[in-house]
Each structure stands twice: as structure tokens, then as C-alpha cells.
Specification:
This protein has helices at about 5-10, 15-25, 45-50, 65-75. The chain has about 80 residues and is an all-alpha fold.
């Protein structure tokens, strides 16, 4: 799907993880439907932890130490 189509379908400000979830939801085989589907991006939870606006927004708190390391390496600063 092209970017223009995604923007038209989901809006220009929609979070990438929400878009990915909506696109993969029908074919996702996860046991717990409340958990994000990891079918396309295996490290999605780590990426989500790295780019979260605040640490309270991180879905998997166990990833916070690694996310902090990556933010430091990437020059993204503290959250």
C-alpha cells in the first residue's frame, strides 16, 4: 500500500503502530487479542518503548532499560 493511501485511510497524524495493528489484525494469530500483533515487526515493542512520548506510555515496562540505552545512542534524550 502506498503512503498516500495510508494517509487517506488512517489520517496524517495516526501513530505508525496503530496503522500496523489495523493492517495486520485480520491475520494475526496472537493468543491474547489485547496484545499488539507482532506479525510484521518483531521488535515493535522495543521500538514503541524507544519512541514513546513518556515512559508511562511504554507497553512493556521490562524494555525500559534497553529503550533508554537506544535513546541515548540515538541522541533522543531522556523521557
Amino acid at each position: 500500500m502506498k503512503l498516500a493511501g495510508l494517509i487517506e485511510r488512517f489520517g496524517p497524524d495516526r501513530d505508525l503502530f496503530v496503522v500496523r495493528e489495523k493492517l495486520t489484525e485480520p491475520g494475526c494469530k496472537r493468543e491474547n487479542k489485547k496484545e499488539p500483533c507482532q506479525s510484521i515487526l518483531p521488535d515493535a515493542r522495543l521500538v514503541q518503548a524507544i519512541v514513546a512520548k513518556t515512559e508511562d506510555d511504554v507497553l512493556v515496562k521490562e524494555l525500559l532499560p534497553e529503550a533508554r540505552e537506544w535513546r541515548e545512542k540515538l541522541g533522543m534524550g531522556e523521557r
